[in-house]
Design brief:
This protein has helices at residues 15-26, 65-73, 87-95; strands spanning 4-11, 29-36, 41-49, 52-59, 76-83, 107-108, 114-118, 128-132. The chain is α+β, with helices and mostly antiparallel strands. Strands 2-3-4-1-5-8-7-6 form an eight-stranded mixed sheet. The structure holds (S)-Methylmalonyl-Coenzyme A. Residues 9, 36, 39, 41, 43, 55, 57, 65-66, 68-69, 78-79, 81, 102, 109-110, 115, 117, 120-121, 125, 127, 129 line the site of (S)-Methylmalonyl-Coenzyme A (MC0). (S)-Methylmalonyl-Coenzyme A is lined by residues 9, 36, 39, 41, 43, 55, 57, 65-66, 68-69, 78-79, 81, 102, 109-110, 115, 117, 120-121, 125, 127, 129.
């Protein structure tokens, strides 16, 4: 079902500061910077290897998912995203196992991907994202 760890999403207050930290510390290339209004984030993807990334997330507002997370828990790992071949199919397979989906249909994700989130309370406390990359569409 899962093809790879696509990315680890990290919530931060200052995107540029954390881009500097992660790119210098781990010698990572910044592949893209995007604003996703629907998800309420400004973000950057830093390639670790192949199609695996660190995703840095700064909220666009305090009442967005990442804004609320920062207020409650502070900076740190926000979610883990797994690559899948067909996000809709995987959503259906996972829903059939009784796990709550946070999206009823795939949404627009970074780098032209299609994404869906699973409720953290049903996945051992880990906010989980399914990612169908643009090249698998
Ligand atoms: C909340 N909880 C988490 C969590 N956020 N647990 C683990 N990891 C997180 N990130 C826990 C809370 O502590 C709480 O537990 C329970 O889940 C419900 O949280 P809440 O605070 O009552 O509810 P909300 O309103 O903050 O909603 C949380 C929820 C929401 C996960 C449902 O953030 C959501 O729908 N997220 C999916 C969308 C998203 O995160 N988008 C931003 C990344 P207790 O025990 O206190 O009840 S966008 C992205 O990443 C895109 C750009 C991409 O990759 O392409």
């Amino acid at each position: 079902m899962l093809l790879r760890i696509d990315h680890v999403g990290i919530a931060c207050h200052d995107l540029e500061e954390k881009i500097k930290l992660f790119s210098e510390l781990f010698e990572l290339e910044v592949v893209t910077r995007e604003v996703n209004e629907e998800q309420g984030v400004k973000e950057a993807m830093l390639r670790v290897a192949g199609d695996s990334y660190i995703q840095l997330l700064e909220p666009l507002s305090p009442d967005s998912p990442v804004g609320k997370f920062l207020a409650k828990r502070g900076e740190g790992v926000h979610h883990v995203a797994f690559g899948v071949g067909d996000v809709k199919l995987t959503m259906d397979e996972i829903a059939a196992k009784g796990v709550r989906l946070l999206d009823s249909a795939p949404r627009h994700g970074t780098m032209g991907s299609s994404i869906a989130f699973l409720h953290p309370k049903d996945v051992g406390g880990m906010l989980t994202e399914l990612v169908q990359s643009a090249k698998h569409k």
